[in-house]
Every structure is written in structure tokens, then in C-alpha cells.
Amino acid sequence: MGIVELLGLAGSVSLLSGWRLYLTVFVTGLAMKLQWINLPENLQMLDALANPWVLGISAIGALAEFFADKVLWLDSVWDTIHTVIRPLGGALLALAVVDASDPSWQVITFLLGGGAALMSHGAKAGARAIVNTSPEPVSNAVVSTGEDIATGGLLILAFANPVVALGIATVLLLLCMFLVYKGYRLWRKIVSSGS
């Protein structure tokens, strides 16, 4: 894999970790265990994801997240708890993918991976908080299912074509930044009108 492919894979898994960390870890580990993807020598550090214990724990986490994310307001509690976990997981996954020998690049990769995961997590959590204010319960499940499908699809794309995935991850990151900005503006408007 060249640098662009590595960046595409690292960017995709870290960004998707902000949405669905457990699903990202599980699908990546399962793909490695079943040899759907063959890792180049520089990515052998990711073999830990194919460990049966890691697969089991990430499967339980993905299943818990799947159901918690469909329940009105429980999804926001789940997102609040995972505000630290998802960005840290995204940072560690990006670091494992790039696996740079230079400590400076390790820190840069860790920070960028964590930043991407935090940005996507913030956009997801903010959007879900807005969806939770809807009086009908269906929109919450529809949005959550869309996130599940998008995460799975983008992971498969990241494994199959990391360059295309890098382009999509970049667009998604820009969209997440826009959503976080709009959410912040809405929050400021609510706070200033309440004072």
C-alpha cells in the first residue's frame, strides 16, 4: 500500500470510529480473520483486531450500540459516555494503520485520527440530539439504521478502494465540521434567547 492508500484507510477507520467504534473494530477484525483483506507487512499491527477476544468484545459492543442507538434519549446517553472512547479508539486505529517509525509522525497520526473521530462523533451526537426532539419515534431508528448501513458500506469501500474512501472520508469530514458548526450556532442561539 502506498501513502495515499494508507491515508485513505486510516482516515476512513478513524472517521467511522466516531460513528460506530465497535462495529468498525469488529468488521475490520472479522475481515482480517476471514482473510477478506490481506494486510501488507507494515499493517501487521492490526492483527490484534482478529483476536477472538477482541472480536467477541467488539461484537458485544456493536450489538449493544445497535440497540442503544435506536432508543430515544438512550442514544444521547450512549453518545455522552463514548465522547472519550470513540476519539481514542479512532486515534489508536489510525496509528495502527499508519504505523510510522518516526515518533513525530506517530503523534501527528494519533492527533489527526483522534480529531477526525471526535469531529464525526460530535456531528453524530449533535444531529441525534436534534432528532430526539422530534415528537415521533421513527426518525431516531431511521437515522440510526442509516448510520449502521453507511458505516458498514464505507468500511467495505475502505478495504476495497482506500483512495476512493479517502475522498469520501474527506467529504464526510467537511460535512461533520459543517454540522458541528451549525450545532454550535444553534446552541448559542438557544442560550442567548434563554438569558
Distance between the termini: 55 Å
* Beta-strand percentage range: under 5%
Radius of gyration: 17 Å
Broad structural category? mainly alpha
Helix and strand pattern: HHHHHHH
Q: Share of helix among residues?
A: over 70%
Largest sheet: none
Written overview of the protein:
Helix content is 80%, strand content 0%. It has helices spanning 3-33, 52-68, 74-81, 85-98, 103-132, 138-160, 162-194. The longest helix has 33 residues, at 162-194.
Give a short overview.
By secondary structure, the chain is mostly helical.
Topology:
Elements: H1 3-33, H2 52-68, H3 74-81, H4 85-98, H5 103-132, H6 138-160, H7 162-194
Features:
single chain, 195 residues, mainly alpha, 80% helix, globular
